[in-house]
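The record is kept unedited without comment:

——
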Amino acid sequence: MAARSLAGRAAVALALMLGFYVLAVGLAGALLWVPWAEWHYAGRIHLKLLVGCGFGALAILYSLIPRRDAFQPPGPQLARSEQPELFARLDHVAGKVGQPLPREVYLVPELNAWVASRGGAMGFGSHRVMGIGLPLLQVVDVPAFEAILAHEFGHYHGGDTKLGPWIYKTRTAIGRTLEALGEGWLRLPFRWYGNLFLRITQAISRAQEFTADRLAAGVVGARPLASGLRAVHAYAGAFDAYWQGEALPVLRSGFHAPLADGFAAFVRVPRVESAVRDDLASALRSEAAHAFDSHPPLRERLAALGDLGAVPDAGDVPRALSLLTDVAALEQRLLAFLGGKEARFAPVAWNDVPEHVFLPGWRRQRRELATALAGVTWARLPEALRSHGLDWAQQLHGITVSRAQVARALGGPIGACLAVTLVDRGWTLDAGLGEPVTLSHGGGRLEPFALVSKLLGDPAAGTRFEALVAEEGIGALPVAA
């Protein structure tokens, strides 16, 4: 059954690939024939026609030349000698599926795991590689991780990674052709064929996912696989928010807080837990795949497994992260890979991030704003925002900003100024993982960034801001200094 399925997919992929090359070579030949026919039958030749047809034909033919796949490692490579427990699990699952291990296994900053055949040209001379996401190991247990591995090895078993380079190279050749031909009419047949090619190959990709799911359910179990699929869909958005909003600001300041532990704490924040449930519910409401989707909807995959289940709890059982040895050292290697060989990050605990990372960064922002906001005091800020806010926003960001975007554009930098001003006057800073920045003093609490963002459109925020300025006696102080 699997052999027939692979043969059918291979036949379709090969036919589509050949169809594109026949179209491209045929059209290039027709373009070259036009000036030849004019010279041969009419005894004349128009220079513009010759140049236009010749350029079009050469652009098409040059786009068809296969490029070598210069594989770039996606992260630090994991070694069997350093990670015996992880490779023991890889060996176990690979043995169940009947596939050899990939030549290289990488740790990647993604909530995902994947396999591919990379290197060589058009699949020839390639080798197997695997990526295992560090955040994935934090939100799945060991059985679910094994099921995800079995699914990925299923792509090797089904021959999907052999078809992949052919499909990918043909897609890129179509893309190169469209780019080379610009906006002229010559690109129309290639755009039509490209859409057809993408529709059919993405349908093949969705079928491959179902096949890999069935294999993984057969060798590891449907329930662990369903748990793993739910975790990937539920926590993917949370990791993006954690990486962009929490981890990256720390890294950009030259510090490194524990990534895996931070993510574990982040997903336990009540509002993040709620967002995780919402993300999963949204994924389960998706009833049909779009023609250009590479994966089937989660609902269809879970229905095929007979298990719709609920959101997996990221803390109820031991995480697959326990399979790794010396996670802290692995994180340092991952950060060195992401930041380059010259990158250096000083360790910092998440509890110390507000004092050692946020406050110094906000002070730098305040100094950088001194020229743009020269002469503006806290008492004059609301009026100055209304009259000069648009200019400030465009000056600070170097791009065109609409009036509707001013509040958001200035909420960060001026909110930082307000936070520093109040901290210097004895307010306590609280900026826990996954929580908005808050300041407290004498029983009062406020969110400085939210308050500044609302000054332009919320009268209540303006009233509260004026009361704050009066109570703290900061009206005559400069906003930026």
